[in-house]
Sequence to fold (1017 residues):
Amino acid sequence: MPLLRPSVSAAKQRLAERYAELRRRHEAGCPGVGLCALTSDMRDEILLELFQAALENLAGTAADQLRSQVALVAHGGYGRRDLAPHSDVDLMILHAPAAHDLVVPLAERLVRDVFDAGMHLGHSVRTQEQAIVLACKDPVIATSLIESRLLAGSDELFSQFVRTFRYRVRRQSPRLMSAIAQARLGEQARYGETVYLLEPNIKRSRGALRELHLLRWIGFARYGTPEPRQLRSIKVLSDEDLESLERGHEFLLRVRNEMHFHAGKPADTIDRAEQVRIAQRFGYRPHAGISPVERFMQEYFRHTNRLSHIVNRFVAAARSRDRLKRLITTVFGHRIEQDLRAGPVGILATPRGLEQLRGDLTAIIRMADLANLYDKPIAPETWEVVRREASRLPEHPPPEACRHFLSLLSRPARLGTLLFDLRDSGVLGRFVPALAHAQGLLQFNQYHKYTVDEHCLRAVDWAARLLLDMGPLGHAYRRIGQKHVLHLALLIHDLGKGFAEDHSKVGWRIARQTAVRLGLARRDRETLEFLVHRHLLMNHLAFRRDTGDEQLLLRFARRLGSPEMLHMLFVLTAADLAAVGPGVWDGWKALILTDLYHRTAEYLAGDAPATTIDRQLRHRRQLVRGELGPQKDHPWFLRQLDALPPAYLTTSEPDHVATDLRLLYDLAPGKTTAEGHYLPETETVRFTIATHEESTPGVFHKLTGALTSQGLEIRSAEINTLADGLVLDRFWVHDPDYDGQPPPERIAQVNAALVQSLDAPGGQPPSFPRRWRVGAGKGDSPHLCEAGAPTLRGSRPKVGRGPFRQMGTVPFSPTKTRVSADNSTSDQCTILDVFTQDRPGLLYAITRTLFELGLSVWRAKIGTYGEQVVDVFYVTDQQGRKVEDPSRLNEIRRRLIEVIEPAEA
Amino acid sequence: MKKIEAIIRHFKIEDVKNALAEQHVQGMTITEVRGFGRQKGHTEIYRGTEYEVDLVPKIKLEVVVAAEDCQRVVDTIIQSARTGQVGDGKIFVSDLSETIRIRTGECGKDAI
Fold:
């Protein structure tokens, strides 16, 4: 039986009852702001009772003495009356210095009782002086105390505190505002520097509740009051802004209440599962092909976008440093055109200029074009004017406006920022109407971090920054003559998403419509259509096909038709990947894509393809001979050189080829050797295994099993058959257990496992180590460690790098497994593309099945995109020929799907 | 209820403590300990005799959580304590039969 005081037990009971009541009201539709106020009232009631009980408990006259010398002050969110059902309560016990000895036992008892009653408390016991000194030193304390409210105790003590606090803290307002703004920027960086995140944090991400708090604190520091209504009365906040603020506040609080009630504890991140649930609970209906959850999130983004802009402007206007800049710009700014001035704050429109901007699309886009030309930002107030009048803008942009838009797109200087501003002010949609559909459009897979429109804009921004890049991408970018076509292609490339049809095809139509609308020249229009329709072409070739295949390169080069198109597609592919989310564009992808770029460039530049290939190979062989030293004329080596597969020869460094040849030369008959070599540019290890053909059938799946049982992630694999029945297999793997180069013992361990898998007799399936899966077990299975059944289960270790990997890992809509066979790309092999959900032991299961189906694997490329994988295998039948019989292909498809699907049960 | 014991690098305790506080973990116990794993405490090139074993200073952290929070809390410890080098430590998870708050006698989840 718990030893709690009766008053505390009663308080605990009351808390539970009130909580249930609040929950009922919320479910009955109580508005957010109202419910938070009720929550605060409930806490007030209970705290007052506990305070009374604590006072009465004091010996003798202590209670009477204290009544005029102590004040119970609610502050922070509690002071604001903004409490979510599971928020903490912040309490300061303010006391006169003389009462210190009496206050201590009171505080001890009160705090203990509050905790025992089950409330989460943050408390302090301070005199007025102590509180103010701390506030002047620490902005976090200062901002919390700005929201002070008297709960119980001496009115006079409290009023004096508030007066002195206001006077002393506001005296330091420039420094305070600076510190607060800095802290907010840091928080935004950690929780999402853009509004358009797929899983935002409702308290801390950009545009979220914190923005409102920021407005209040800055309002207090600069104008003496944190209340938006009062800020409106003194005319530093417009009527329209106030209304948007209140509506946004109401919306966010209601969502937050819902999340807290559902989780039964503080929960501020709106992950995928929550979004769907809330959309359903709040009664959103599908409309015009948009699902309920998408409509909910679009509303969320509308509110947070508005909030973010309003608060930005408010803060900028309040900080005197910016006021000075504005003054300088207005008076002394250098005049651009008739009605724009450029100065320290950027470009400001004069009053007459502002008049002109209202509803005049040409004037607006001309200003943006000029801002790009002069490489200056446009002041937020000017954008606000544009935004307010955006509904008056004409549906169709006049030709002069289109000209300015294209001119804007042709210069990288500030293109990214300006496009974001144009989107947010509603102007961009006039030039590209398809953006309206994509605004705030979610993408339901693990892989993407941003909404579709945000992804496209980021891609343009990333590409524009290549101007200063020193690598091959920067090089290619600078050589592009028609940059406006590239930028436009990036802007619209994914706008075809969200429709039933394939997004590339829809994108193609959008590209044509946009080109016509903007009045693009015919050649530019054709280029744009190609780039958008085929924006995944280079991506697929690089990551799903064998880039050593000459025929493939030739066909690709022919399709592109010109070096300019290659430069553009190269940059576009890279930008598309980079804008998906942090960590997606890495050294491995960069290397493969750049390699494809260079080799294709050779074909575009050179003469007749056949001679090119032959000449290349001859040249390569000479280079390898050069590396062989004394053995370069040895007959065995010459025979091997001639028999080397062209793809292997052209994609490997001559010194590595020489090393591999020597490895093979030293290989005793019936034996296997393995070597591992770390490649720093891609952070992968390349394992080379040499063996004899007859020594063991099914080499590929055994090696795959060995590697995955060592916990390695396979990126790509190559099986090369050379002269005299020798086999040289290469695997490029990533070792998640080590950042950087794995130690020699680790490589030796893997080598031993590889050799063992081929040398050991019997078809023992490999055992996969159990791995703790970070982020697993949400939703369905509560199991902690993945059970390590010996055959198919194991894990791709996922203790990932960086914050992105830790995002909510509820598999949203599990990928349907799909297997497709491609007999047209390669002359020698049938290409099998397997699309499915990633799971432990998958790769081993697939490769084992291919072996059992009597297929030989020549190349493999493994691509992981969040929870989805695309595994590509180049296969032939036992006679080394393509599999062309349709019924056989169907059987292969069926078997593979059968093997993959039940593993999920 | 589950008891989570983690042996971590001594300089990682601040990071782990802060990360756990953000996850609303309500309490923990820290002990300074010494120990070794399969590399016998030899993290760098070791020139002594191979059967000698070194004791390396570490911190042991113990927290008790509700079973449904176990995954989240272990994830947090892993992410904040990891450096990728040998010596990062281990985590042990065990089932706990009872928890009691001495002062009030509360049991179970209320006592966590």
Q: What stands out?
A: The interface with chain A takes residues 24, 67-68, 70-71, 74-75, 78-79, 82, 84, 93, 103-107, 110 of chain B (CB under 8 Å). Strands of chain B lie at 2-8, 29-35, 56-65, 90-95. The domain at 2-111 of chain B is CATH 3.30.70.120 (Alpha-Beta Plaits). Residues 70-81 of chain B form the longest helix (12 residues).
